[in-house]
C-alpha cells in the first residue's frame, strides 16, 4: 500500500508535507507510512479516499482505477467502448464542438454578468 500511496501523492503533484496536512498527520508520520515503517490506519484511508476521490479498493489492493469516476463517466466509457472506431471518431468531433459552444456560452454569460 505504501507504494500506491506514494504513486497517488505524486499523481496529485503534492509533497509529503501538504499531503500529510490534508489527512491530518505530520510529515514525519506520513513519511514513515509511505516508507512502509508504519501502517496506514483505516481512518486515514477513508480520509484519503474522500478527500481525493480515490478508489479504496485500488488503495488497499492495487485493483481497479486509482480514482473513482462519476456514474456519468462510467456509463459514457461503457457506451463509447461498444462503438466502432469510426463512430468513436465522429463522437469525439461532436463532443469537441459541444465544448466550444459551451465555452462560448459561458464567456457570453460572464460578459453579461459583468455589465
TrEMBL record:
Ranges where the HTH cro/C1-type domain occurs: 5-59
InterPro entries named in the record: Cro/C1-type_HTH (IPR001387), Lambda_DNA-bd_dom_sf (IPR010982)
Gene Ontology molecular function, alphabetical: DNA binding
Pfam families tied to this protein: HTH_3 (PF01381)
Protein name, as recorded: Transcriptional regulator
